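On to my pick:
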Amino acid sequence: QVQLVESGGGLVQAGGSLRLSCAASGRTFSSRYMGWFRQGPGKEREFVAGISWSGGSTYYADSVKGRFTISRDNAKNVGYLSMNSLKPEDTAVYYCAAAVGTYTYPGREPVAFDSWGQGTQVTVSS
């Protein structure tokens, strides 16, 4: 498994921006698909964005498309989620995750990811 630690969450006004980071340890990070998920109060964990091992392919939930950007720096073992034009409905705990296996596209279900960070809170005020 890969160990993941998120940072960068906080309180921001609607329309503002934040950048989340996900620091990874483990030799296989650069060969694993990475995803960001979120879980709002009383809601199930949902897919936000994903990026292939090389960074060449990215995927987004419709709710964040055009506002969020996922990226990664394999040389530094770090993943990022840049969030712009934030809305109150983006309020949630955000998790980064690494997919099971190497060089494999896992889809968007949490069960396909076996390494998770502890989460970072993002709160967007109206």
About this structure: Residues 43 and 118 are 17 Å apart (CA to CA). The two ends are 39 Å apart (CA to CA).
